[in-house]
């Protein structure tokens, strides 16, 4: 993992060390084609995108607009069919499966709509999981795991299994798992999709806090304008392309319809 | 890396205790069956050998007639004479001693107790052919033997039934029509392949011939063979000598038979060994079936846990780590099954040994082999499901419902 460790040295924490003109993430003419022949389907038709370190980005768009495909590529779960994907100025599209796994392990955190916690496993063991793959020792795992649970306000629930937690609590455990490795980027795929509005606001406030206080870049897919309102940047996808990008100056304040 | 995988595998097994137990059941039964069968088979072989060797090793038993259950028609072949005994002892190389035997059954009476037993008349050569130490007392002297005195050496069963707890040596008891002095008591031999060996009264052969059988005929000779000589070579020179002495010429069949205990022992041993192998092979098949059971459950488990695998891949597990986790899970399961199977086998063996009347044995070799096979089964049958898990695409795996 010469590439990833090189990146690590260049960028201590935050994005401050990186040259001001080099965004954290750059997509250049990214295309993605599924299938072959008659069933061929082009999900992305040449996406250009810059995401600055420390930003809070909401990705919106109708189904089939390419936003999920883009998120999968940004999350290094999928590879583009064409174009370039640069993470901290390094090409990712040329990395193999294991190298992308190492990139995810070191720099990325994931939060899913369905929480995706391991069942019959305590909150702490769930949170510790990424640390296990990093090869951290038992004590470090416990300390970092408890610290992450404390950040999401669930340290007292460390020995509860997902079945014993509410949906909001499960999502907070999932967030703790995503941030326990101190990632640069947190990718959230409709994190509030399965929650009621009150819990949704709690989760959004938690993400906003992590973005602000821990300087984690947040990329979030959402259908709900109320949730997108918490972001600083909103990217709209349409027909496999970026439709428009809007900057919100007062994130967290739900805009009135028609007023922007 | 391996420590991590082991932790993950053990956590996963602990989360599904019942499923894990059912998965390993095949291995438990397979290992248990193999170890039980092989151990009991070896114990049976040992028991057979023991009961054969209780007849004495390197002994040829010579009887008139053409072997067991044959020679029904025609005149009965003559018994042996004392001269035959001397001739064999003198003329055949490799013979240590020849003990003639004359046998009869009689009822022994002492005070209130009576006991029906076998009276065996023999010579001092009997103790040379098959060493049988005395627990107390003495053997008869050559003078007593020559005179055919009514002196008895009794087996422990006779002692117990006739004399209870008292010391039998020096006591006089009635046997058949005569009175007999007990001069010695034999050590206990226990149950042999042909009944209770301790239910015996030994007397000088002349006493038995004179007082019981009424002839000089000898129904059985025990021929001791020197360790340095092969029993089959001695057997063939013995056959030649007896044919000559009994005037059997040309193509006529022998009218006597020679029973080689060593040969019988070898035959029985090879038979029981073969039976052990067959039963062990059947048990080994159940072990393989157990392995297939593990593969089956692991494959189901991979499908059932697709989402979990997706989560692991998304948070940065590389394919190799997922493969290792499932492989280690399978190996840990099959090894656990192996250990439980070994314990189970010991319990079954402990329960069956008294019922089968075989000696309890612990054979480290078969235990190690059975355990090693269970571990190998884990690797072999765990690999395919593990590879399938590792090959999953994280996006598809995460989407899996």
Short account of what is shown:
The complex is a heterodimer of chains A (260) and B (401). Chain A is of the alpha/beta class and 260 residues long.
Strand content of chain A: 15-25%
Give the ordered list of helices and strands of chain B: HHEHEEHEHEHEEEEEHEHEHHHHH
CATH-defined superfamily of chain A: P-loop containing nucleotide triphosphate hydrolases
Total tally of structural domains of chain A: 1
State the share of residues found in helices of chain B, binned by percent. Answer: 55-70%
Provide the low-confidence segments of chain A as ranges: 1-20, 255-260
Mean pLDDT of chain B: 87
Low-pLDDT stretches of chain B are: none
**Spatial order of strands in the largest sheet of chain A:** 6-7-8-3-9-10
Largest sheet of chain A: 6 strands, mixed
How would you describe the oligomerization state of the chains in this entry? Answer: heterodimer
Helix segment tally of chain A? 8
Radius of gyration of chain B: 33 Å
Please give a structural write-up:
- The complex is a heterodimer of chains A (260) and B (401).
- Chain A has 260 residues and is of the alpha/beta class.
- Chain A has one domain (2-13, 22-247): P-loop containing nucleotide triphosphate hydrolases (Rossmann fold).
- Chain A has eight helices and ten strands.
- Chain A has a six-stranded mixed sheet with strand order 6-7-8-3-9-10, with helices on both faces.
- In chain A, helix 4 packs across helix 5 (138-151), helix 4 packs parallel to helix 6 and helix 6 (167-179) runs parallel beside helix 7 (197-213).
- Mean pLDDT of chain A is 87; it is low at 1-20 and 255-260.
- Chain B is of the alpha+beta class.
- Chain B folds into two domains: 2-51 and 266-399, no CATH class; 78-254, no CATH class.
- In chain B, 57% of the residues lie in helices and 18% in strands.
- Chain B contains 13 helices and twelve strands.
- Chain B has helices at residues 2-15, 17-53, 82-91, 125-129, 142-147, 156-163, 205-213, 231-245, 261-304, 306-314, 319-356, 364-390, 394-399; strands at residues 59-64, 95-110, 113-122, 134-137, 151-154, 172-175, 178-186, 191-192, 195-196, 200-204, 220-225, 256-260.
- In chain B, strands 2-3-10-5-7-6 form a six-stranded mixed β-barrel. In chain B, strands 8-9 form a two-stranded antiparallel sheet.
- In chain B, a hairpin with a 2-residue loop joins strand 2 (95-110) and strand 3.
- Chains A and B meet through helix 3, strand 6 and helix 4 of A and helix 1, helix 10, helix 11 and helix 13 of B.
